[in-house]
Amino acid sequence: MTEAASSLIYLDTNVFIRAVEGLDEAAVPAKTLIKALRQQRTGIAATSEITFAEVLAPSKQANSMPLHMKRRAYLDLLLWSGFVALIPVSRNILIETAELRAVGRFKLPDAVHLVSAIQVRCRFFVSGDRDFDKVPAGMERVSCNHDDLPRLLKELS
User: Fold this and answer.
1) Helix (H, G, I), strand (E, B) or coil at 142
2) What percent of the chain has pLDDT over 70?
3) Nearest 10 degrees: CA dihedral of 34, 38, 43, 45?
4) 68-116, pLDDT tens digit by residue?
5) Which among 12, 40, 95, 115 is placed 20 to 30 Å from 50, CA to CA?
6) For the residues of 17-84, what is the DSSP string, one character each?
């Protein structure tokens, strides 16, 4: 990988969900991060293609965004914006995901996310999910909250 990969930021699905669908104060950090990343260079962030399956599923909440609007928002953010690299769910990622799940207590999507971040050598792993409190050496977990994100945003500037 190139030197730029050392600052690559992996975004878990919940970051996108908070940024697009979040309406409360807890959504502000995700919205701020996405806005800052969109102003940076192309491909500064990465996420697995499994993110599509997670974000495009119909919501179970009654007051959720209409599905056609939700689909458009996520396609714009993940495909057309250019700031996020989509990591294909390859056979190799699936094999390593199975190995990770054998030694850890990860749900399948979470394991795919972590293995994807490892594969592309992300320096930061941004998530609101406590399952990622421990990440491999050389990778920093950043919570998607008011406490952790300022540190990451400072690194970007």
Assistant:
1) strand
2) 96
3) -10
4) 999 999 999 999 988 999 999 999 999 999 999 998 889 999 999 999 9
5) 40
6) HHHHH--SGGGHHHHHHHHHHHTS-TT-EEEETHHHHHHSSPPSSTTPPPHHHHHHHHHIIIIISSSE
**What is the rounded distance in angstroms from the CA atom of residue 92 to the CA atom of residue 96?**
6
pLDDT category of residue 1 using cuts at 50, 70 and 90: very low
Global pTM value? 0.91
Number of Cβ within 10 Å of residue 89's Cβ equals: 17
Identify whether the C-beta of residue 22 lies closer than 8 Å to the C-beta of residue 31.
Answer: yes
CA distance 143 to 124: 10
How much is the mean pLDDT over the chain?
89
Strand, coil or helix: what is 154?
helix
Residue 104 φ then ψ, to 5°: -135, 170
**pLDDT for 42 beyond 60:** yes
Cα gap 56→47, rounded to integer Å: 15
Dist CA 70 CA 58 (whole Å)? 9
